[in-house]
Amino acid sequence: MQLINTSLIHPDFKLNGKYYLGINDLLTTIKTLDNDSYLFLCQWFNNNNYVTINTSGSTGKPKQIQLQKKAMVASAIATAKHFKLSNKTKAFLCLSTTFIAGKMMLLRALINGWELDILPTNSSPLSGNTKKYDFGAMVPLQVQHSLKDLGLVSKIIIGGGAINNTLLAQIYTLKTQCFATYGMTETITHIAAKELIKNIKYYTVLPDISISSDSSNRLVIKAPHLSENTITTNDIVNIINTKQFEWLGRYDNIINSGSYKIVPEQVEAALSKHICVPFFVASIPDELLENKLIIVIESKPYNLEIDTTNTELHKYQTPKSFYFLDQFIYTETKKIQRQKTLDLLKF
């Protein structure tokens, strides 16, 4: 099958300030800048109608999946439409193009005719930069280390991990419009976003996407332009309407403790006001409760006292034990690998 026309280079597309005469010109340049981006674009411009992508492995084993190029084009256009980003939008890429988030930032620019700069993929990609941008994408760690520089950016999307309450409070003070995104490799990055301003709890889906939930309250996504199949996720949600939902946690993380079902992410959200270092809630076997709720904290041991009256947690949601580790295990996209990290404790 021949490559679809919409995946050709948009005439307004710029990379690092340069227009390109054609595919070979672009590939020659990008090979000198970033080999992962070069390898991806070689796939993008070949005659296949799909691209092979690696998943991050944050909720299971990493795997390779095939995404249809026409679906990736549709996703890129939907992002531009949702965030009101026209051609000649000034954007930056600071995410690795090994994974879908970085690949799609590159494609959004290529397809929508943006002016894209490739920046370092380190924790502070805007450091030393004075150029102003309309749009960018970061993971929470990069946002944390770029707060003083985010005034250069009009709109930014944040994905790839949870945003703790400390960082959220700092984001509230910014003039930059910041959005948390919801998505996965299978949905070609985000299918929903919520602006990070006070009292906004719900994600709003992008154009041409509808949502519902199954009998286990897992999110069900219908997005014909992205996938021919309905996607049932492992995310527990509260459906507000066909376009909005509240994310509660992962179905496969649910803990049964003393006949109660506990969603770790809800406990973590409450405790994040009291713990300022990386942590997560898990469970260990217990004769009385079946599973005992614990906290695992990335830190040297210290005295941690939590006033449970101020956490909005029920008694059964209160962790019974605390464990400390010097270093968690993370994926390449900086997501905590909960089970592998828990295995380090060797109960």
Number of separate domains: 2
Measured by DSSP, the beta-strand proportion falls in 25-35%
CATH class of the largest domain: Alpha Beta
CATH superfamily of the largest domain: ANL, N-terminal domain
- The run of helices and strands is EHHEEHEHEEHEHEEEEEEEEEHEEEH
N/C terminus separation: 54 Å
Average pLDDT works out at 89
Q: Which value, in Å, is the CA radius of gyration?
A: 21 Å
Shape call: globular
Q: What strand order characterises the main sheet? A: 1-5-4-6-7-8-9-10-14-13-12-11
Enumerate how many helices there are, as a single number: 8
Tally of strands: 19
CATH architecture of the largest domain: 3-Layer(aba) Sandwich
Q: What is the third-level CATH name, the topology of the largest domain? A: Rossmann fold
| Helicity range | 10-25%
Tell me what you see in this structure.
The protein is an alpha/beta fold and about 350 residues long. The chain has 2 domains: about 250 residues, Rossmann fold (3-Layer(aba) Sandwich), CATH 3.40.50; about 90 residues, ANL, C-terminal domain (GMP Synthetase, Chain A, domain 3). Helix content is about 20%, strand content about 30%. It is built from 8 helices and 19 strands. A 12-stranded mixed β-sheet has the order 1-5-4-6-7-8-9-10-14-13-12-11. A 3-stranded mixed β-sheet has the order 17-18-19, with helices on one face. It has a two-stranded antiparallel sheet with strand order 2-3. The longest helix has 14 residues. The protein starts with 13 loop residues before the first strand and ends with a helix.
Describe, in short, the structure shown.
By secondary structure, the chain is an alpha/beta fold. Helix content is 22%, strand content 30%.
